[in-house]
Input
Amino acid sequence: MRTAWKPLSQLLHFAYQQGMSCLFPVAIFGTLALTSIVAPPFMYRYDFVLLVLLLVQYLMYRSGLETIDEMKVIGVFHIIGLLLEIYKVRMGSWSYPEPGLTKLFGVPLYSGFMYASVASYMCQVWRRLRMDMTGWPGIVSAGLLGGAIYLNFFTHHFIPDFRWWLTALVLLVFRRTWIIYRVRSSTYRMPLSLAFLIVGFFIWLAENIATFFNGWRYPDQDQAWQLVHVSKISSWFLLVIISVIIVAQLKHVKAGRDKSI
Output
C-alpha cells in the first residue's frame, strides 16, 4: 500500500518544493494584483511595488531562504533585466503607462525584479531539489551562447532576428546536458533543454497574469487586455538559459570554494 502511494507522495513533495521556490515570483504578481484592485495610499503604485519587493528580498535573506551569494546573482539579473527593459521601452516593444518617482527612462525600477525572480527561482529550486548537471558544455561555450542570446534581444530591432538559429544552437550545445534533481531519496533526470522550455512556458503564463493586472502593457493591449502572443515563450526560453548559466556558474564556483575549505 505504501508503495502504491509513493508516486503521489513524490509528486506532492515535488510540487511543494516548486511552490516554495516561487515565493519571490508570487510576491511580485501578488503585489501587482493587489495594487491593481486597491490603490496604495500616499504613493504611486510602481513605487509601492518596489518597496514591497525590496522588503520581501530583505526578509528572505534574513530568514535564510536566500544566501548572500544568491542575493548577488539576483542583483546581477536585476541589472541585466533593467537594462533590457530600458532599451525595449525606448524601442516601443511595451510600456509602463502609470506615473512613478522610481522610474528610470520610463521604466520603473521594480521591473528588474521580474527578471531577478527567475534567478531567485533557479537558486531556490537548485538548493531544494539538490540539483546537479551532467554533460555541462563548459563556461566558455555556455557563456558565449548566453551572451549572443542577450545581445540578440537588442540587435533584432536593426538586423535580422537570430532567435531560431540561437534556439538550434541551444539544442546543439546542450544536447548532452541533463539536469539531475532529487525528491526525497529518489533521483530523477531531465534534458536541460526540456527544462528550459517548461520554465519558459510558466513564465509566459506569469507574464499574462502581470499584463492583466497592468504590470506593463504591450502595444496590442492598449485598448483592452488580450493574451500575450505564444511566440513570447521562445523569448523566455532563451532568457531562462541566461539565468541557468549564471546560477550554474555560481554553484560551480561555490562547490569549488567549499572543497578548498
